[in-house]
Amino acid sequence: MANLLSSAPTHATLPDCFVFPPDQRPPASSQAVSLPVIDLSRGRDEVRRAVLDAGKELGFFQVVNHGVSPEAIRDMEAVCAEFFRLPAEDKVGFYSEDTDKPNRLFSSTTYELGGEKYWRDCLRLSCGSPVGDTKNNWPDKPQKLREVVEKFVGPTRGVGMELLRLLCEGMGLRPDYFEGDLTGGDVIINVNHYPPCPAPGLTLGLPPHCDRNLITLLLQSTVPGLQVSYKGDWINVESAVPNAFVIATNGVLKSIEHRAMTNAALARTSVATFIMPAADIPIGPAEELLGEGNPPRYRTVTFDEFMRVYKTVGARRESVEKAFKL
C-alpha cells in the first residue's frame, strides 16, 4: 500500500513521480478572479438570469443563502479535517486503489494517461438519495462522520437540484428535465486533502480537468489553491465567501477546466459534492435545444460508456470533447 501523503513528513524531498513536466504546470497569472456571488434568496427571475449568465461566462460561481445550515457546513468541515488527522492505522482498512470501488480512501492517484502522480489524499463516499443504509459503507471513524455527512449531503443535493431547475428554465427546457434517471445515480462526495508540499512549484494537487458529472458543489477551503482556465490563462480563484458553495456547471454552459495547486506551509481540505446520472441511461443533447441550423454536436452514449472513455483519454476538456464530437 502506498503511504498516505497526510502521514508523510513535510520536510521530505518531493519524489520524482510527483514532478510534472514544465509544460503541464504552467504558472498562474498574477491576476485573481472573484467568482460571482448569487444570493438564492432573491427573486426567482433575478436568480435565474444570474445563474445562467455566470454559467455562460465563467462556468463557476458562488451561491449564498442556499438553505444548507452553517452548522451542517461547520460540522462537515470539522469531521473531514478530523478524519485526515487520524493515525494511518485507523485509515488503512479503508484504503483502496480499485477505481470501481464506490467508497474508498486513496492517495496520489494517476489518470490512465501519463505517469505523474498528484499531491492529494482523497476520501470518496457514495451516498444514496436518501442516504439510508449506504452510510454503513463509510468509515466508522471519526465517530460522528456518518451522522455529519448524512446531515450535509441531503440538503446539499437539494441545492444542486434547485440550480439545475433554474438552469433548465433559463435555457428553455422544462424545469424537471433533470429529474429522474438523469440525476438518479448516487451522490458522490470527494473530500480532497492536500498536505503541505515540499516543492509546490513542481507538482499539482489536481491536474487540469473538467468534471464528469452534471453539477458540482464545492465547499472551498480558506487556504487558496483552486485555479481556473480563463481566456487562455490560469487564474487564481479568491477564497470563497463564508458558508458559500462554489458551483461548477457542466456547449451553452461552460464545463470549465480547473486544477488544484499545493502549498508549502498549509494543508488544504475541500469537499466536492457531485450529482451523477444513473449508470445505464443515455446521455446526449436535449432534443428541445436541437433544430434546423442547430444539429447535435456530440453523440449520445450511456453514462457508463462516457465514464470509460473519460478515464481512458484523461480529463482534459479537449480530449473528452474530441472523443464524443460528431
Describe the structure.
The chain has 326 residues and is of the alpha+beta class. It has 2 domains: 14-278, B-lactam Antibiotic, Isopenicillin N Synthase, Chain (Jelly Rolls, Sandwich), CATH 2.60.120.330; 286-325, no CATH class. The protein is 25% helix and 21% strand. It is built from 6 helices and 15 strands. The chain has helices spanning 44-57, 70-85, 88-91, 145-171, 303-313, 317-324, and strands at residues 32-33, 37-39, 60-64, 104-107, 121-127, 187-194, 206-209, 215-219, 226-230, 233-237, 245-249, 258-260, 268-275, 282-283, 301-302. The chain has an 8-stranded mixed β-sheet with strand order 2-3-11-8-13-6-5-4, with helices on one face. A 5-stranded mixed β-sheet has the order 1-10-9-12-7, with no helix packed on it. A hairpin with a 2-residue loop joins strand 9 (226-230) and strand 10. Helix 1 (44-57) crosses helix 4 (145-171) and helix 2 (70-85) packs across helix 4. The model has no long low-confidence stretch (mean pLDDT 87).
List the helices and strands and how they pair.
Blueprint: E1 32-33, E2 37-39, H1 44-57, E3 60-64, H2 70-85, H3 88-91, E4 104-107, E5 121-127, H4 145-171, E6 187-194, E7 206-209, E8 215-219, E9 226-230, E10 233-237, E11 245-249, E12 258-260, E13 268-275, E14 282-283, E15 301-302, H5 303-313, H6 317-324
Parallel strand pairs: 1-10, 2-3
Antiparallel strand pairs: 3-11, 4-5, 5-6, 6-13, 7-12, 8-11, 8-13, 9-10, 9-12, 14-15
Helix pairs in contact: 1-4, 2-4
**Low-confidence runs (pLDDT<50, min 5 residues)?**
none
Share of β-strand residues? 15-25%
Q: What is the terminal separation in angstroms? A: 42 Å
Considering DSSP H and I runs of 4 or more, what fraction of the residues is helical? 10-25%
Please tell me the overall pLDDT: 87
- Total number of β-strand segments? 15
CATH topology of the largest domain: Jelly Rolls
Give the CA-based shape.
Answer: globular
Which strand order does the major sheet show? 2-3-11-8-13-6-5-4
How many helix segments? Answer: 6
Largest sheet: 8 strands, mixed
CATH class descriptor of the largest domain: Mainly Beta
Radius of gyration: 19 Å
CATH superfamily of the largest domain: B-lactam Antibiotic, Isopenicillin N Synthase, Chain
When the domains are counted, the total is 2
Element-by-element helix/strand order: EEHEHHEEHEEEEEEEEEEHH
Global structural class: alpha+beta
If classified by CATH, what would the architecture of the largest domain be?
Answer: Sandwich
Family: Belongs to the iron/ascorbate-dependent oxidoreductase family.
Protein name: Fe2OG dioxygenase domain-containing protein
GO molecular function: metal ion binding; oxidoreductase activity
InterPro entries: DIOX_N, IPNS-like_FE2OG_OXY, IPNS-like_sf, Oxoglu/Fe-dep_dioxygenase_dom, Plant_2OG-oxidoreductases
